[in-house]
Structure formats: structure tokens, C-alpha cells
Design a protein that fits this description.
about 550 residues; Arc Repressor Mutant, subunit A
Length: about 550
């Protein structure tokens, strides 16, 4: 095959999103005669999308140099801009800054304004967004949008609106920010945006849906991302992140076996080159292991997730709680909350409430619950409301207000049911059972616990199921005894093996009185022998 044929076939495969074929044909053509700068740029994109980020950066560097050789400064600046973005994504800040500086120098040589000027603003905007300056980021993203509109550049327009939406959410206007993200996805799903910006947009939008607890949106856009990835089966970049999001959604909806499979798939993509999947793949696996009682395995998974550089909270703190160390859990979660920006802090609040109650520090738990309630008033999405009501119910219960707890917990349970989140719904019923017992409603408490126990077993939450089972036994054993206090004393001595004469001596009664008490015991309990009475005493913990 000649180099020209390889280039033609590589270009055709590239247009049709057949990334492996595009890579192979363009690579072979490059080895047999070299590639012009635009095709080197295509080869770099194919390498990045199939997971070879290092090779892609090297090829894009060659494309930049080739553009300079042929005098195409605009093409060289475009390569420099994307190199800055890609290197920023793989946390090579110095190299990223270097390429940005080169692009900014070269752009001055352009004879007339160009869209690449807007592209060079993208690393600047991202630096502000992730550096804690969402207001500054919004302004720079708006400038990028102006370039996109002026030069009819759909990629810049989409990335601008994406960044403005992210910044708006970070500034506290969640609904407006999400509307912007929806608009981005209109362009992406219509095929108006090129592959790399499309992947960036898909993953960012789904991530922010999770960050803002917008479960219906997360489901819809994760489904769209999954469809997009399935249409590009040889694409590695973004595919692992998609599997991570699927794992989180499967876990929420009680499909825990499927969640583990999706987490494993994310890990496989991480090995192939989707570095961003490393965190989600192992963190979600850790969550499943923690909830199913495999605590050592969960610890190992969280440690692997931490290698990505992302925080593994609240999972690690909740793992400490599961291991019986609430003080260490408190230290970890408080540190994570203190170091987090507002959007991430809100995701930590439910765990903070749970851990502060376990210590217990009721003042801190109430403070965290109130903060979650304030967020629910700003952003009254169903999942936020459910989390807020659940936290308030747990705190009310600890504060000695079971009536208030029941109102909040019933509200939370109904929303979890509507959202199809069985594990959290079952946790609400366990808390509601404690509140019912506190107001003397043992029958409702038992029904709540039995329903929760069945749900925990269904999803595979062994530790939670065992806890519910122990509470059920506690209720059954706490049923009012039909025996008088004196009859209980006689029954205990019968169970210890003593004859009527010895019992009479111990209790300073006559043998006739002991015999009458024993007859009453048999009658009330429906028993016919001392052996049966002894068994009853042990089953109802009247004796050790």
C-alpha cells in the first residue's frame, strides 16, 4: 500500500470515527513517506482517542512543527493550544504552561484575527475554574464564546458554554448552570462538535449532574454518553469515565452486581489509557465493597483510587466508621469538608452528619444537617430534598425528637422510592423504626425493619441486613411479658434447674405457693412442662 493510499484510507476512517483504523493507516503512511501537518494532527487525535495520550502529544508536537515549516502559523497555534489543554488534563502543568506561552507568542504573528485566539484562552479559563475562581473563569469562557460566535467555530462555542455552565454552578446558581449544560449537549448530540470537545462535554456534563445531585439528568446524559461511546467501540478516551458514571448509577438504583461490572470495565479502560477512569473505577468498587462488608478489599480499592490524585472521601471516612473507629472517621471527614469548595462540600455533608452522630457530636451533626437543608432550599431537587430530610430525621432522633424525626424520614423515604434508590430508602426505614419505638409504636417499627431487612438482602448489603435483623430480634424479645414479677423470678429459678423446695427457700415462700406460681406460668405461656418453661426463659433472655 502506498503512502497516498494510506492517507486516503486514514482520512476516510477518521471521518467515520473508526479511530483504530485511522491510526493504523495514518501511522503506516507516516512511516512510509511522512504526513503533511493536517494529517499529523488527525493521527494525534486518533492516538489520543485510542488511549495513547503520550504518543498523541508527541505527534501533535510534530504537527505543530510541520505547520511552522510550511508557514501555517494558525495551524501551529491551534496545535499549541490543544497541547496545553491535553497536558493540563494529565497534570503536566509546566509543559502545559510552556505550550500556552508559545501559542500566545505565535498568535502575535497572525496577519488577521483568528479563532485560535479563543482556543488559547481555554487553558486560562480552566485554570481559573479549577483554581477556585469561578467568577473569573466565567468571564474568560464568555470571551471564548465571542470568538466562537465571530468565527462560527462550533467547538469553541460548545466549550465556552460548557465552561460558563460549570462556572455558574460553582457560583451557586445550579439551575441556570444546568440549563447551559443542557444546551451544550444539544450541539454535541446533533454531531455539531468534533470528537475531543464532544467527549470533554459529555463527561463534564454528566459529572456536574452527579455533583449537583440531579439524578434524572445524570441518568439521561449518562445514557447518551453510553450510546456515543458504544458507537465508537475502539475509543478508549472518555469510555472509562462513562463506565464509572454507570457504576455510580447502578449502585444508587440497587443493581450492585452491574455496578461492580461497570467499575471493572472502567478500570480496564484506565489500563488502556483513559487515565480519568482510574479514580471512578476503583472508588466505585470501594463503595460496593464497603457496603457489602468487604472492608479490607474496600480499603485497597480506595488506595488505588487515591493514586489518581482525587480525594477518596467520603468513602474512606465511612470505611473507618464501618470498622468501628468513629473518631478517625470524624477526623477524615472534617478535614475533607474544610478543604473542599462549596459544590464538593455539599456532597460530603450527608456522610458528615452520619459520622458526627456516631461519635456522637450532636451540635456538629445539627450544623451539617442545617447546611444541607439550606442547600435544599436553594436547589430543591428530589435527591437533595431526600438527603436533607434523611439527615434531619437522623439528627432529630438523636436529639430526642422522634415525632419530628418521623415526619422528615417519611418524606425522605417517599422521595427515595420515587427515585428508585432502594438502599437509602431502606436506611430511612431503619431510622423510622427507631423513631416509632420511641413513641411506643412497636408494630410499625417491626414492619419498617422487616421491609428494610428484605431490601438490604435484595441489594446485597450484608452489614445493614444483619443490623436490621438484630433490631427485629430486639423488638420480638421486648414484647410485654404476661408474667408478674414474682412469676418471672420463679421461672428464672426453674430454668436454673432448681426444684420447688429450693425455689421456695430462695424466695422465702411455701412450696404450695411456688407450685401455684408455676401453674400460673404454664397457663399464661401455654406450656406443659418445666423443660418447655426453661426453653422459654432462655429464648426470651430471662436467664443468661
Amino acid at each position: 500500500m502506498t503512502a497516498e493510499t494510506g492517507i486516503d484510507q486514514g482520512r476516510s476512517a477518521f471521518r467515520e470515527n473508526r479511530w483504530t483504523e485511522a491510526f493504523e493507516n495514518l501511522r503506516d503512511a507516516d512511516q512510509h513517506g511522512g504526513l503533511p501537518a493536517p494529517d499529523l494532527e488527525r493521527l494525534a487525535t486518533a492516538e489520543i482517542l485510542t488511549g495513547s495520550i503520550t504518543a498523541g502529544v508527541d505527534t501533535l508536537t510534530r504537527a505543530h512543527e510541520e505547520f511552522l515549516v510550511v508557514g501555517d502559523v494558525e495551524g501551529a497555534v491551534r496545535c499549541a493550544g490543544w497541547l496545553a489543554v491535553h497536558l493540563m488534563n494529565i497534570r503536566q502543568a509546566a509543559r502545559s504552561a510552556g505550550w500556552l506561552a508559545r501559542g500566545q507568542r505565535l498568535v502575535k504573528e497572525l496577519a488577521e484575527p483568528s479563532a485560535v485566539e479563543g482556543l488559547l484562552l481555554l487553558p486560562v479559563a480552566l485554570g481559573k475554574l479549577y483554581g477556585g475562581d469561578p467568577a473569573g473563569a466565567f468571564q474568560v469562557f464568555a470571551e471564548i464564546g465571542a470568538y466562537g460566535q465571530r468565527f462560527q467555530d462550533n467547538d469553541l462555542a460548545a466549550l465556552s458554554l460548557l465552561g460558563q455552565g460549570q462556572s455558574t454552578i460553582m457560583l451557586g446558581n445550579v439551575d441556570e448552570g444546568l440549563r447551559m449544560l443542557d444546551e451544550v449537549m444539544v450541539a454535541v448530540t446533533a454531531g455539531e462538535v468534533s470528537p475531543v470537545p464532544s467527549g470533554i462535554s459529555y463527561c463534564a456534563v454528566v459529572g456536574y449532574c452527579h455533583l449537583t445531585f440531579d439524578l434524572p439528568r445524570a441518568l439521561e446524559w449518562t445514557g447518551a454518553l453510553d450510546h456515543w461511546c458504544r458507537g465508537r467501540p475502539d475509543m478508549v478516551a472518555f469510555s472509562g469515565q462513562c463506565q464509572s458514571y454507570r457504576a455510580e448509577l447502578f449502585q444508587l438504583h440497587g443493581a450492585w452486581a452491574e455496578a461492580l461490572k461497570a467499575a471493572s470495565a472502567a478500570q480496564a479502560y484506565a489500563v488502556k489509557g483513559d487515565a480519568e477512569a482510574l479514580y471512578g473505577g476503583y472508588y466505585q468498587q470501594g463503595e460496593m465493597e464497603r457496603l457489602t462488608g468487604k472492608l479490607d478489599a474496600a480499603d485497597a480499592s480506595y488506595r488505588l483510587a487515591a493514586k489518581s490524585g482525587h480525594s477518596v472521601q467520603p468513602g474512606l471516612a465511612l470505611l473507618c466508621l464501618a470498622k468501628g473507629d468513629p473518631e478517625q472517621a470524624q477526623t477524615l471527614i472534617r478535614s475533607a469538608v474544610a478543604a473542599s469548595r462549596p459544590a464538593m462540600r455539599r456532597r460530603l455533608l450527608p456522610a458528615l452528619v452520619e459520622i458526627e452522630l456516631a461519635v456522637p457530636d450532636l451540635v456538629a451533626a445539627r450544623s451539617a444537617s442545617d447546611e444541607l437543608e439550606a442547600f435544599s432550599l436553594e436547589c430543591p431537587k428530589p435527591m437533595v430534598l431526600a438527603l436533607s430530610w434523611q439527615a434531619d430525621g437522623a439528627v432529630c432522633l438523636a436529639e430526642g425528637n422522634p415525632e419530628g424525626a418521623l415526619v422528615s424520614l417519611r418524606n425522605a423515604w417517599m422521595v427515595w422510592q420515587e427515585l428508585g434508590v432502594p438502599y437509602e430508602a431502606a436506611r430511612c426505614r431503619v431510622l423510622a423504626a427507631s423513631a416509632c419505638r420511641a413513641v411506643g409504636d412497636e408494630a410499625s417499627a417491626l414492619m419498617d425493619l422487616e421491609a428494610a431487612h428484605a431490601e438490604f438482602l435484595e441489594v446485597g448489603a450484608a452489614p445493614a441486613a444483619a443490623r436490621a435483623a438484630s433490631l427485629i430480634r430486639g423488638i420480638n424479645q421486648a414484647e410485654p411479658s404476661p408474667l408478674t414479677q414474682r412469676e418471672v423470678e420463679v421461672l428464672r429459678l426453674v430454668a436454673s434447674g432448681k426444684a420447688n423446695r429450693a425455689i421456695a427457700a430462695d424466695l422465702f415462700l411455701s412450696e404450695k405457693t411456688v407450685a401455684r406460681h408455676l401453674s400460673n406460668i404454664f397457663l399464661k405461656l401455654g406450656l406443659s412442662s418445666r423443660t418447655a418453661a426453661t426453653r422459654y426463659a432462655y429464648e426470651h433472655r430471662l436467664v443468661s
